[in-house]
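Q: Two folds, back to back.
A: First:
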Amino acid sequence: MERICDDLRDELADLDAIVAGLDETEWDRPTPAEGWTVRDQISHLWFFDQRAVMALTDPDAFAADMEHLLAGGGTDLSVEPGRSMSGTALLDSWRGDREALLVLARGVDPSSRVPWYGPAMGARSFITARLMETWAHGQDVADALGVRRTPTARLQHVAHIGVRARPFSYAIRQ
């Protein structure tokens, strides 16, 4: 669990380094994800890092929030908070909440189940999924800004979760 948390921390730090010096116009640059800007990508990560904290600390509140989210437009709601703040304020908020997630994740029993969108996940897979989201959305940000990222050994977690989720994806799609 410590290694996954360390790798998530490092993936977050690498993405932070890409966006840390952006001016407001760069925050609004379109990314390859249609209709999403750099700001939207970071807002989405921030939003779901907050939900991850909620899932780990208050599963009942998470369940209620999940129902609200799914009824109200799904992941589109995740970009709205960031659209109403400056890039600097978004970055500061994301930094604080992701640090809270990392502190919390380090204390989680690795064998515990964590509620999420769909079936509950094992704690290791849950944190690995946050790493995968950070890497994937970070790639959209890097592409939008013309930044070339060097692959790291952290990607083994992304490959691992992809292989492990493959049977589930077939079951879902019959």
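A: Second:
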Amino acid sequence: MLPLSKMARRIHVAGKNADDLGNQCGGWTITWQGSSGAITTGTTILQAIRAAVLGGAEVTYSRDGSGAAGAAAGVVVIGETPYAEGNGDRADLSLAAEDVAAVRAVKSAGVPTVVVLVSGRPLVLGEVLGTADAIVAAWLPGTEGAGFADVLFGDYAPTGRLGHSWPRSMSQVPINVGDPGYAPLYPYGHGLSY
């Protein structure tokens, strides 16, 4: 599925984090907790995808995933909103219902789907894992969405490796190498490249 072609006839981008600079930056950006929206200058992932395509390729967008039918590929950018320290503590690290619904909408339109996860920690992927054709952990890419677009379109090969284990479910949290029955979704050191 990856890298995507810059010459695709149409790429449909969806998700609450696709066009939100504050969500890309996370906490400790401008203010302690950060905030969603245009909190500073920079390039969102949606803006970067639009700037990267070539040859008249069209990039469409909907937050909820509607309008994806007929696209050559879908990119659904989901994940967390900003937080810092204890204010970000959660008893459940599952994806928000809005995120799952956006992925489901793009995939149910018959579109090959890339999920981009913007977060400061591993989240429980749940049904998104079986729905998406590819999943990329973008972490908190900051103000320069173009750097992420470079990876999405293959201008730069991903090189990251997990510095922790990624849990399958909340029942595995916390999970560490050496735990009895260690069977994470992605083990410590996991990472793929082109």
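Q: And?
A: The first strand starts at residue 10 and ends at 14.
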